[in-house]
Amino acid sequence: MTSPGATANPAIGEGPYPGLRAFRQSDGPLFFGRDREIRDLRSLWLANRLTILFGPSGVGKSSLLNAGVLSELGDEVDRLPVGRVFPAPFAEPAAGGNPFTFTLLSSWNPSASPESLRDLTLREFFRDRAGRVDRFDDPLPFLVAIDQFEELFMAPSQLWRHRDHFVDDLSAALADQLELRLLISIREDAVAALLPFERRLSPPPRRRLAVRALTADAALKAVTGPLRETSRTFGPGAAEYLVDDLRSARRPDDGREPDVPAVPDEHVEPVQLQIVCSTLWAALPESVRTITAEDVRAHGDPDRSLARFYTRTVAEVAAAHEMPEHELRGWIERNLITEMGTRGMVCEGAGETAGLHNEIVRALASRHLLRAEHRLNARWYELQHDRLIAAIRQAGRAADDPAGAADREPDARLRLRAAHRALVVGATRDAADWARQTIDAAARGADRRTEAEGRYLLGQVAGMRGNVADARTHFGEAIGIYETLRDGTAVARVLTGLGDVLLAQGRVDDAFVEYEQAVRRQPSDLDALEGYARAQWHLGHLANARTAYERILQIDPGNVSALAARGELLAELRHPREAMSDLERVIALGPDPARLEDLRSARALALAQLGRDDEAAEELRAAIEANPHNARTHLRGGEAELLRGRPEEALEQLREARRVNAPGLLPYQNGAADDLERRISSRD
């Protein structure tokens, strides 16, 4: 039975409930029912060298960390983005490299080049990083977190020998950095594997915190709380009915007969609650303002909701792209579920992702079946949640998919997958070898598209090594093949990749040419537009860069990177009120912590333009403390100090801007520095 007027195809993960995906840091206002856990975890993390957060899969560990604790942490701590150490099968690291160390560092510093991270140890990384201090020059507590730490113990056997070295390196970093506070989030069934390493990781004090399912009262808050800022409410008894129904939901493998009611449980599984609530929200007609118990009865079964979501998503995406459903299901099973029954990851190429057109993979991500992660200038995909694995396998059995589909995957594509996985652990030599084998195997099989992907990957490797000439050659060969295939989208992405290589080498004019060609071919491609905007900015064409970022925001209004860039540009263009609007929104959304110093210096400049001198001084101080070697911070600081009528302090900031270089001034900012010096001199 369905509610009158319910939509036929509700989507999971929309509205005030995230559905399968974990709560993000920006979702703090929607996160309810974990008040005690938030207080406990925050206190333990700040007080102990090592804190272990554990609980079953789907209990909400990542959500508690991001939306609960991190969303409330202010300037009283120094921290990094949440890290991962996912396993990378089919690849051995280059000599001296450790795949777990490399992947963790790439998640903590996603904008770094693979070459700069490949042989770096955790001990060296922390030793070379300038920590933040408070106003009394005392170091701030330095919080770092590693999510899904069970991945360390689920790696393939060929990587096991690197595990001990990784633990010893992490332990040495903790011993060196007295202000470092490490939080490890791990599934409960993997805690036993962690125990032998716990003492080696850190000396006391170290603590553990278990996360359990929600109590009935907490679940009621999680159901009703997110609606506070919406136009809908639950009618009398409706939310209570939903929670009671979830408490008595039968598990898929509990062995009970369908007609035998389940005994009410004491707790509610958070992932089931989110699946039901997000499906319910999307299924309601626009006109509904009061959610009734009847609405809940119509959409309140989590397992049916999840199964319907998966089968419907696959059917709709397959139909939209005119491909057989069983082929799309087979691709998902082969590439996104490992032999060990865990989530796998795939890397997006120029035109394909593990043999599937990028547009299809992006469609799966836009419908919340997959999660996209940007790392090392590449986009990686994985399933939104472990809970999907059982539903996918059950759907595959029900559809009676032909056995042995993985065995029939073309040899060239298997080699391409190995090349991508080598690249993600920084094994550029292995990645290049696999890419060459991909090209040879594709040529034998007359698979031009996979050959182009192999050549594109060779270009990426050459770019990472700083070999621009070879990168141009390989990218050009890939473009030639895509031109014959009439794949304009892939051509634009290869041009964007070449632009990225050139920009990283400081060849801004050449990079701009490639980005401009990419945008002309695909005016709505976000990666091409962002590269084009960056190049305009680096060249000093600030108004043009602003226009480009506004085009991105028209296409993707929630693009945090574009919003942050526009805010910085608006401050430099002397539009302080508009700049403050963008910058405050970005900071509320939880930007990459590595970018906070630039956002703060832009905000200091905007505040000075508005005459809010004390706030500008405080914001500039915070930006400099975050990274005293950022030349752009000091240049903006010089502008802010001059606006505040302090020419001597402005000159000191200018001298620092010319002295430091981590990062240095952009090309156009050298002229801005000369102009600032002239204006300071005129004040004397």
UniProtKB/TrEMBL annotation:
TPR repeats lie at residues 492-525. The lineage of its organism: Bacteria, Bacillati, Actinomycetota, Actinomycetes, Streptosporangiales. Transmembrane segments: none annotated. It holds the Pfam family nSTAND1. This is Tetratricopeptide (TPR) repeat protein. InterPro entries: nSTAND1, P-loop_NTPase, TPR-like_helical_dom_sf, TPR_rpt, Ycf3. Keywords: Repeat, TPR repeat. Residues 16-391 form the Novel STAND NTPase domain.
